[in-house]
Write a structure and sequence with these properties.
The protein has helices at residues 13-22, 41-50, 69-77, 105-124, 175-184, 202-211, 233-245, 262-275, 313-330, 343-347, and strands at 3-7, 26-31, 34-38, 56-65, 90-98, 129-130, 137-144, 147-153, 193-195, 255-259, 281-285, 299-302, 335-340, 355-361, 364-372. The chain is built from 10 helices and 15 strands. The structure holds S-adenosylmethionine.
């Protein structure tokens, strides 16, 4: 049975493992960077369509040691790449190398490309062109201390690109990071969710798609596997039909998004509309200083600004003080999850966290903290 690797934002491998198991996939290994699972290609299509947390689904094809360029070339030559695409299709090599004899990743990428195109030339007398923006075949090469691993990217563009976000505020969360955090929060998918710093709407749109059972990949036009020779259109169409049939039209609760910035509210509304979830989310321009519970009970999940990319620290202190005050005085009996990359600002909340996770938002080390308002 083939093995596939689902990569995830750092800190979310456990959540991804649970998600893939819930999808019925056979998880075989887990590391900091993601989860390995064993499956036929249908399982690979399924993970691409349904995983809310994975960044990409890769098909590992080669592992070897190489110290010299010729060793690298020969190892690549041993694997038949002509089975993946036709010679008139395009490809790209994405290489990253660390702590090895060959330390120039452009050189490594070129050597791998040469080994692949030579195979096509020998067999067909024609070679695939390189296209770095929209290639049909993306080959990923990773090397650490002369140990190489080579994979085929079955996703194409990264899976956080769901296709519903056209415009964003400054410092938006990636969709798969937001979905992973919702998974960590253990939100039950059956109760209201409130976001005081809604920005482009990512948390609430992801949550609404979960509640309405809308597959995260349903709005995407293409995936990498669609360009591969073995693509089975009938199997894919069946998965898409099943996903659409399982969607819900209505749910007996709502989502509430607030933001001080009117432009953010307009952007979030547009994004929610494109995602097909605007009928279950209410948006309102309002400051965290004045916001009051829009329903009797629910869960709060927020990503306030934290200075690494936007805002200045003094103003942000006031925002965190307002957030702490609002939670303490107006949201008694609620639970709140806060994602922040700034420890000092978290101190300004003047609240004590009952649970915490370490998460990376890109390269920024963040904390995802739970507060229970008694
Ligand atoms: C880091 S962004 C949130 C990004 C959002 N999670 C997303 O994925 O797009 C922070 C948001 O907080 C809003 N904001 C800043 N100060 C605020 C305040 N006092 N009350 C409410 N919203 C505020 C900003 O307008 C911005 O949209």
């Amino acid at each position: 049975m083939p093995q596939f690797f689902a990569s995830a934002p750092k800190g979310l491998s456990d959540a991804l493992e649970i998600e893939l198991k819930e999808l019925g996939l056979n998880v075989t290994e887990k590391s900091q960077s993601g989860v390995m699972f064993e499956s036929n290609w249908e399982g690979c299509y399924k993970a691409n369509l349904h995983s809310r947390i994975a960044s990409r689904i890769m098909k590992p094809i080669l592992d070897f040691t190489a110290y010299q360029p010729e060793e690298l070339y020969n190892a690549i030559q041993k694997h038949d790449f002509t089975k993946y695409i036709k010679p008139n299709q395009t490809m790209t090599i994405d290489a990253s190398v660390r702590d090895g004899r060959m330390h120039d990743q452009r050189f490594v990428a070129m050597k791998v490309k040469d080994a692949i195109v030579d195979q096509f030339r020998e067999k067909f007398d024609v070679r695939p062109d390189v296209d770095n923006t929209r290639p049909d075949l993306r080959v990923q090469v990773r090397a650490v201390k002369n140990q190489f691993s080579v994979s085929i990217d079955t996703s194409g563009s990264s899976l956080f690109q769901r296709g519903y976000r056209r415009d964003v505020v400054e410092a938006p969360l990636k969709e798969n990071l937001a979905a992973g955090l919702l998974k960590l929060s253990e939100w039950d998918r059956q109760s209201s969710l409130v976001d005081f710093f809604v920005g482009s709407g990512t948390f609430l749109i992801e949550a609404a798609m979960m509640a309405l059972n809308i597959a995260p990949g349903i709005h995407r036009k293409t995936f990498g596997f669609m360009k591969l020779e073995n693509f089975d259109r009938a199997v894919w169409d069946k998965l898409v039909d099943e996903a659409i049939a399982a969607e819900k039209e209505e749910i007996p609760f709502e989502f509430f998004g607030f933001d001080i910035d009117r432009r953010a509210i307009t952007i979030a509304k547009d994004n929610a509309k494109r995602a097909g979830v605007d009928h279950v989310i209410q948006f309102k321009a309002e400051s965290v200083a004045t916001v009051a519970p829009p329903v009797e009970k629910g869960l709060i999940v927020v990503n306030p600004p934290y200075g690494a990319r936007i805002g200045d620290e003094d103003n942000l202190r006031d925002v965190y003080r307002d957030l702490g005050y609002t939670l303490k005085h107006r949201f008694q009996g609620w639970d709140a999850w806060i994602l922040s990359g700034n420890k000092d600002l978290i101190g300004d909340l003047k609240l004590k966290a009952s649970r915490r996770f370490m998460i990376y938002n890109g390269s920024i080390e963040c904390r995802f903290l739970k507060y229970t308002m008694r």
